[in-house]
Amino acid sequence: MTTGVPTLGPDLERLRADARAFADEVIAPGAAERDRRKEFPTAVLKAAAAKGYWGILVPENYGGMAAGNLGQSVILEEFARADASTHVTLSVHNSLVCGPLMAYGSESLKAAWLPKLASGEALGGYALTEPHAGSDAASLSCTAVRDGDSWVLNGTKMWITTGTQCDVLLLFARTDREAPKAKGISAFIVPRRLPGLTAGKPENKLGIRASETVQLFLENVRIPADSLIGEVNRGFNYAMETLNGGRVGIAVQAVGIAQRIVDETAAFLRDRVRHGEKGRTTQDEDFRLAEMATKVDAARLLCWRAAELRDQKRDHVREASMAKLFATQSCNEIARAAVELVGPAAISGGHVVERLFRDARITELYEGTTEVQKLVIARTYLR
Question: Which residues have CB under 8 Å from 218's CB, separation 6+?
């Protein structure tokens, strides 16, 4: 049983307005140039830290905003509308690092890291995927072996967002090779700059090009025994629960990208001169714009529903996957329609829709592919 559609009260509306102003004034300027240069948004992130956006979920006693998952959704949608690269950097940091550390970390780990993560002193990265363990994350082979008062890590991680820019990783490794593959994985907090932890070259990506993505190589990386998050061999459960929040985060990214596409397409059609008349459109163009806008609103409401259920600590596996499935598919459909409506400018790099079209594609791939979301949703009905 799911809840109805949530609405935003005055506090969340204020958060939304503040985030939109920050996105318009700080994030959006320079986004196209950062994309062209594949330049990590260091100055933008520093400004975001000063506004508290590195600790959206973090409790106030650790220096965070404590805005909850619905609050995070309305904030990060505005960031994605301005720049998907900045969005994913902060989404990973908040949802995939701060979130599980809050939920499963020891008091000593939370005290050591949450204030740094919330203040902007430390940027977080999430290291689950491996070259041969993507959608089948339970097949990961990176190992953590107990050696006295330490764990020793060996293996390779792939597609790691902010892999060289981050200060700390939430990393998953196999701690029991004899256990069934999903039962022998543990989670760790790993400072990024340790002996034996190195990175490959940044990937050359189609979209979100101002967001760094790298391989990480771990060779006898030694961390203290108390770096373990939660219980030993329970890491896969933590990863899957964390990805429910991550999926909402990427669904929100898709909504932000799609909303910007609708806004820019409408502006193009209003300003276009056709047959000597400004703003003249065909009925087909009107209908397509209406369908695009309706899909954005429907996707947004699915995101809000999943985020509110997560805040209520209720089961939201189905709702998170539904939000990601619909939002990301819709975002890509909207991007394709916009390219057709805007025309040559949208494929020559002369219009923002070109960048948005490229950024949209990844939303159906990471944090669980479209096909994975369909499997998850179907299984909630068939179990």
Answer: 142, 153, 154, 155, 156, 157, 196, 197
